[in-house]
Amino acid sequence: MEKRKLKIRDLTLRDGQQSLFATRLDQKTIDGLLPDYCEAGFYIMEVWGGAVPDSVMRYLDESPWTRLRTISDKIDGRSKLSALSRGRNLFGYVPYPDSVLKGFYEEAIANGLNVMRIFDALNDIDNVRESIKLINQMGGIADGAVCYTVDPKSEPAQSSGGFMSKLKSMFGGGEKEAEKIFTDDYFVDKAKEMEAIGAKIITLKDMAGLVNPLRAASIIGRMKAELKVPVDFHTHCTPGYGLASSLMAIINGVDILDTNIWWFGGGSAAPALELIYIFCQRLGIEVEANMEAVGRIRDKLLDARKSLSEFDLHKDNMQKPFDPLKDELPADISALFDSAISFAKAGDEDALLDACHRIEAYFGFPKPNLLVKDAEVPGGMYSNMVAQLKSLKAEDLLDDAMKLIPKVRRDAGLVPLVTPTSQIVGSQAVSLAIDRKKGNPDYSNASNQFISLIRGEYGHTPVAIDPAFREKITGSAQERPYDVSSYKKPENPILPEFGSVNLAVDNKEYLLVELLPNVANGFLRRRRAEEYQAIAAEKAAEDSTSTAADSMADQPVTGEVISAPMGGRIISINVKPGDKVTKNQVLLVYEAMKMENDVCADKEKTIKRIFVKVDDVVGAEAPLIEFEDE
């Protein structure tokens, strides 16, 4: 029987560096990795999308399009290249009309993109429908991502401070019953809808790392049974489930697994490929990757990580070096891999997690983030709430704000906590905690983004929003979706200070203005300034040369001169004043009677001056070059 194979989507150059190192990996470093990536044999390399287009302009002063095109040219089809986008929002937070989606996908595919992973923060199929259709029409591969989330925990009822409230609290009363919305059926049904509208890959995308092993087993198992297209699993290790859940996904038949290479794996990123490789070896599954080439990339990534130390939260406690092809595991650690497999097959989640945590601890990967695990929110959402409270000098309200997340989610239609809804809900929970501390009514201060979410501008929420709540927040009980017909294309201003050129000089640059206007404006202004300065410097050099030539032209001819043997046009000049030339060296080339003719030196000489320039038309016997009088 043919050995089962596991395809790998390598996230190192996009999600890995974004999760761990603030998306600061520059093009020069990536260029040094690409020769080995050509040999690595990954099914897919995720290299673009997410925070990359914004960050490379904002922090590295590099072009996102150059990054995609450069990687595509060097990989030359050996791996498929993928990007991440938010459906109708692409990389921004505004729903774009079909014309913008079409223009963006055309340029992305023309510049080397193969797979577009498309997700929507609300899992609203209407928000991904057009993107899936367009990607397929243009010859790309539409990867439909179903965003994983969990039902909110029970929310303690707001205490009135009376005797009955205290009594209910003492005996466990006063809690709202937790909903059961995000069941296996919910995720599998979303996947089937995406497959029905044309998705060629379905990804269970767990951006917060909240898929515990048993849920990974049940959801992936059902997707494999009920879908015809390949199934991909994407998770993070933040709360400590990632490695164990990935093992469960493999055992339950997942086709593609998202991983990072060693130094860019674990922690808040996806699991390390090297650990997955060991599990697959013991399961009799072939990992479709050249692990020798992976080893060469791993060696270079260590230096890359050291260069990113200012963004590395674990720089003082990095994992130990490890090569699964050469390094022998201690007997007790080797046994842990086998035990983890046995526990996974038996469905013993606690024992499986314990074994995987001990494996990660041995290698020195970061410990599980218990705050994220207990709160069941993305790590980025938690850190944003902390930062917001610090800026308000209200850090003491963090616990209150965290406890209010379930209420805000329920009021907002039980939205999944992924970008951008996680930031919207987290920020509103902070505002709600402040309202309550001040004795103000709930939602006295609603952010513009929260109002837009409740109004319906982000799409359909998993659960319908109470019309009375919508009226309270927006002033109207009626749902009002974002009207893409009202979209106005941004201006492409003329910049008189840089020679009256447009800010964006081609369609790719204009798309940056459409999708990321704030950062693109500064980035493109710097490009136009550089080009203007380069033209000015070139003109100044030409003027200087012309002035010198004019000065020389006034001087009498004292040295030997080569003249044109017949009339013609100067095509190229290969020497300059001061050059010492040798016998038979070609000095210039001119065209006469549709034939190219070389003018050569007849002996060793030194060029004194040149009387012509490229494209000059000269007559017979016209002076071309004067030599020093020797």
Characterization of this structure:
The structure is a single chain. The protein is an alpha/beta fold. The strands form four sheets. Strands 1-2-3-4-5-6-7-8 form an eight-stranded parallel beta barrel, surrounded by seven helices. A four-stranded antiparallel beta sheet has the order 12-19-17-14, with no helix packed on it. A four-stranded antiparallel beta sheet has the order 16-15-13-18, with no helix packed on it. Helix 5 links the parallel strand 3 and strand 4. It starts with a strand and ends with a strand. About 3% of the residues have low confidence.
Largest sheet: 8 strands, parallel, barrel
Distance between the termini: 86 Å
Structural class: alpha/beta
Shape: globular
Counted by DSSP, the helix tally is: 22
Number of strands: 19
Radius of gyration: 32 Å
Strand content: 5-15%
Contiguous runs where pLDDT drops below 50 for at least 5 residues: 159-174
* Mean pLDDT across residues: 90
Share of helix, binned: 40-55%
Q: Numbering strands along the chain, what is their spatial order in the largest sheet?
A: 1-2-3-4-5-6-7-8
What's the short story on this structure?
This protein is α/β, with parallel strands linked by helices and 630 residues long. 45% of the residues lie in helices and 13% in strands.
List strands and helices in order, with pairings.
Blueprint: E1 5-10, H1 12-21, H2 27-40, E2 44-49, H3 52-58, H4 64-75, E3 80-85, H5 98-110, E4 115-118, H6 129-137, E5 141-147, H7 163-170, H8 184-196, E6 201-205, H9 213-226, E7 231-234, H10 242-251, E8 256-259, H11 273-283, E9 286-287, H12 291-307, H13 331-346, H14 349-363, H15 370-375, H16 379-391, H17 398-411, H18 421-438, H19 448-455, H20 467-474, E10 494-495, E11 501-502, H21 507-515, H22 517-553, E12 561-563, E13 568-573, E14 580-581, E15 586-592, E16 595-600, E17 605-610, E18 617-618, E19 623-627
Parallel strand pairs: 1-2, 1-8, 1-9, 2-3, 3-4, 4-5, 5-6, 6-7, 7-8
Antiparallel strand pairs: 10-11, 12-19, 13-15, 13-18, 14-17, 15-16, 17-19
Helix pairs in contact: 2-4, 2-12, 5-6, 5-21, 8-9, 9-10, 10-11, 10-13, 13-14, 16-18, 17-18, 19-20, 21-22
